[in-house]
Prior knowledge:
By secondary structure, the chain is of the alpha/beta class. 33% of the residues lie in helices and 30% in strands. It has helices spanning 40-47, 88-98, 103-116, 132-144, 162-177, 189-195, 213-219, 262-269, 285-297, and strands spanning 2-11, 14-24, 29-33, 55-60, 63-64, 73-76, 150-154, 181-185, 198-203, 206-212, 223-230, 242-248, 251-256, 274-281. Strands 6-7-8-3-9-10 form a 6-stranded mixed β-sheet, with helices on both faces. Strands 2-1-4-5 form a 4-stranded antiparallel β-sheet, with helices on one face. Strands 12-13-11-14 form a 4-stranded antiparallel β-sheet, with helices on one face. A hairpin with a 2-residue loop joins β12 (242-248) and β13. α2 (88-98) packs parallel to α4 (132-144). The longest helix has 16 residues, at 162-177.
Amino acid sequence: MLEVKNLVKTYGSITAVNNLSFNVKPGKIFGMLGPNGAGKTTTIRTILNIIKPNSGEVLLNQKPVTKDLFNSIGYLPEERGLYKKSKVSDVITYLASLKGMHANAIKNDLDKWLKKLEIPRYKDRKVEELSKGNQQKIQFISAVIHNPELLILDEPFSGFDPINQQLVKDVILDLLDNGKIIILSTHQMDTAEKLCSEILLINEGKEVLSGELSEIKKKFGGNHVMFAYEGDIKFLNEMDEVISFDIYSNTAEVHLKDDVKPELFLKKIIDKVTVKQFSIIEPTLNKIFIDSIKNQNS
């Protein structure tokens, strides 16, 4: 288990991480979420012992995360960190050797991972000759080839089309079945919602909310409906029944007051727009994210 206890990191008068504490259990994906500048990357780099905290501690299986545990951790950064003029096989081999892997093991596992991510034909190509998505696959392989116990993935789906997103999701879930400790940092709320069982939402270096995603959804449950429509729905701004709403792709997600019955709300709106689909829903993680940040900043 990964334990982060009362972590604080400051840069002069700026507090980048403000007394964060959380645990990440094996066999679960832990989502670290937050807007740009929230402190996610600083928290990750502190966990990795790349930067030192002002106070607090990080423990992996009750041991401080020092250079002795370096080979037990895999990290996929958001930024590309590959040697673009080198061959794919040489880059992965070099990075795996830094994690203590022996040459024979690297050779065997390299072919296995290239095949798993459907890019064996690029083994002897230069990194710069690959697409953005395939470069991301190389970086992903470099993060996992040494079979780390703790895996930190920062925007792992960047550059992928939907097919390759699903491919990498399946690989991550396979790693989860093997008992890995996985932290996922992403801005893609729909992805986090599908993959993460626990989340930590931070803003301005502080915890906004955390816990089991299912429990958080219950807490934010309220009275929510979603409907697909044709027409102009500006009238929602004037309806007393509505607390808030979000519009995307001719679909509205509406938070109704607790005493409003969804079926009566439907009867009112069908006189104003064409309703193509209507359902009662639990709040999405995207909705929880937006509302939580707004509430903190208000």
